[in-house]
Amino acid sequence: MLQKAESSWTGEKTTRRRRRRRWPWALAAALLAGAGYYHYAGGAAPEAAPAFQTATVEIGDIETSVNAIAKMQPKTYVDVGTQVSGQLRTIHPAVGDVVKKDDLLAEIDPTVYQTRVAGDRASLDNLRAQLAQAEAQLTLDRLRNERAQQLLKNQSGSKDAADAAMATEQISEAKIDALKAQIAQMQATLDGDLANLGYTKIYAPMDGTIVSITAREGGTLNANQSAPIVLRIADLQTMTVTAQVAEGDIPRITVGTPASFSTLGLPDRRWRGTVRQIEPTPTIVNDVVLYNVLIDVPNEDLMLMTDMTAQVFFRLGEAKGVPLVPTPAIRTARDGSQSVRVLTPQGPQERAVKTGLSNRSQTQITEGLGSGETVITGTNAAAGPRPGGRPPMPPRLG
């Protein structure tokens, strides 16, 4: 009897212990169930995010362009050097001076060349005197030969005397020819030395502005080893912009393509011109292939200067008052066909379209869409459950 009472008491104690363990779990389940009901069925739940990112087809203007960094140089310039060696005695203009063609720019010490010219003239005078003497001797030899030939004809003289007289005349004629050749040679030497003497004065080959002076007064210029540059003259009225365009963009640019650019110093001002030349030989910088594209622009106010940096925009095309959609909305298939997803009351629909001009942000629609339609540009990754959808069940506990 006592054993039965102890067994009954032990069973009741175990049952109470189990009930104590279960009631915290039941309370937690009730709280979670209530919170889930409030979140999915209650009016305080936040509105679900839309499932798609969309945009409206709008009427507007579009322009496509290619950008490049460029440097500026005068279109026409000349590096003025010297053709003779010597000490640079004087440089007349300063950097920034405007000069006209044939203005005297610099002078080289002419002493050596003046001495050569004087020596050439003296030698030439000596040869001319020798020529006069030879011509007088020829006249005498010719008379003697005529007399000898007459005597031989009259059988009053010997044949040896007649032959000697004829040979002497011919020798005199040869001497005259040799002297004439020496005179011509000396005259050429004199002309060359006179030219070198003239080169000691350096004149401007064109109208322009002195943009740099590389030589210094008193320095010695050696024209035998290289062509020494004294200064540079440039016509700053027209500048050439040299833009470096990547090989991926160069096929879209041709001679005559409109271009505009701004400088770092005047970012709000735009200069305009057209492509004059595309150089066929590229420049490779860090394994990037770049082609030089040349643009000429007027510079009447001289605001553009040598080696300025410019941001160039090549205008490839423009359209006004056309339907536009964001470029991410365009989908391109492997066969090249294009389409967009249009959001309709029945849901998203795929629609084939034809496009025109395009840039990074907008694309022109030429066929397939009208103004006001809504296109899908992407999927909203943060979107919640669709309205009217069945909420998920709370997790099962226990």
TrEMBL record:
It comes from the Bacteria. Gene3D superfamilies: 2.40.30.170, 2.40.420.20, 2.40.50.100, 6.10.140.1990. The chain crosses the membrane at residues 23-40. This is Macrolide-specific efflux system membrane fusion protein. Residues 356-366 have a biased composition (Polar residues). Residues 388-398 have a biased composition (Pro residues). Belongs to the membrane fusion protein (MFP) (TC 8.A.1) family. Residues 324-378 form the Multidrug resistance protein MdtA-like C-terminal permuted SH3 domain. The lineage of its organism: Bacteria, Pseudomonadati, Pseudomonadota, Alphaproteobacteria, Hyphomicrobiales. Residues 124-200 form the Multidrug resistance protein MdtA-like alpha-helical hairpin domain.
